[in-house]
């Protein structure tokens, strides 16, 4: 079977990345369906002051912290879990969020997802493959790449399942857009 080279797929890679970037901008800035994913603490200023007092370096933190899994069963550790709060915390560098840098990284990510979808499709589908078959392969790969990380966050980090469901809806939109672009521009 003849394969499709990545060089032949440069246009669908870039165009699908641009389409996903635009769609994600619309989802977050126009539809704003993720606005309810984040809640505010009633005593936010007190919590901020307590965290700031310790000056933690940017990183990922958990509380209560248990250095070794064998300590999880100790009564004092169990008491901390029962007393609460149980939380995961990501501390970022101080200062206004760098939206330009984050958007740049997001665009690079969309290109990387499109590149990987192109690689897989190019290795498994021949030139002239029917639109729907290209759509299925690229759509599945793209949906997995954009959405399934959120499921892990729901399982391991306690991300609310309602938020995970919205992330999967986003991923479906992004996967369908990517699939449509690749199916339309697939080499004949």
Walk me through the topology.
Elements: H1 10-31, H2 44-54, E1 59-63, H3 75-83, E2 87-91, H4 99-124, H5 131-156, H6 161-185
Antiparallel strand pairs: 1-2
Helix pairs in contact: 1-4, 1-6, 4-5, 5-6
Poorly predicted parts: none
**N- and C-termini, Cα separation:** 14 Å
Q: Order of SSEs, N→C?
A: HHEHEHHH
Helix percent reads: 55-70%
Shape: elongated
Report the mean per-residue pLDDT as an integer.
96
Structural class: mainly alpha
Strand count, sense and barrel status of the largest sheet are: 2 strands, antiparallel
Q: What is the number of strand segments? A: 2
Number of separate helices: 6
- Quaternary organisation of the protein chains: single chain
% residues in beta strands: 5-15%
- Give the C-alpha Rg: 21 Å
Strand order, main sheet: write it out: 1-2
């Amino acid at each position: 079977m003849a394969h499709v080279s990545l060089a032949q797929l440069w246009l669908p890679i870039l165009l699908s990345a641009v389409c996903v970037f635009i769609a994600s901008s619309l989802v977050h800035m126009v539809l704003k369906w993720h606005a309810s994913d984040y809640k505010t603490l009633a005593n936010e200023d007190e919590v901020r002051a307590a965290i700031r007092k310790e000056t933690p370096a940017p990183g990922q933190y958990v509380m209560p912290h248990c250095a070794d899994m064998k300590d999880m069963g100790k009564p004092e550790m169990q008491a901390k879990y029962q007393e609460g709060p149980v939380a995961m915390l990501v501390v970022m560098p101080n200062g206004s969020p760098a939206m330009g840098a984050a958007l740049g990284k997001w665009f690079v990510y969309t290109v990387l997802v499109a590149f990987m979808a192109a690689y897989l499709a190019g290795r498994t589908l021949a030139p002239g493959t029917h639109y729907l078959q290209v759509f299925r392969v690229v759509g599945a790969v793209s949906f997995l790449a954009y959405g399934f990380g959120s499921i892990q966050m729901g399982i391991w980090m306690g991300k609310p399942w309602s938020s995970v469901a919205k992330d999967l809806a986003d991923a479906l939109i992004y996967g369908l857009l990517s699939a449509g672009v690749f199916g339309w521009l697939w080499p004949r």
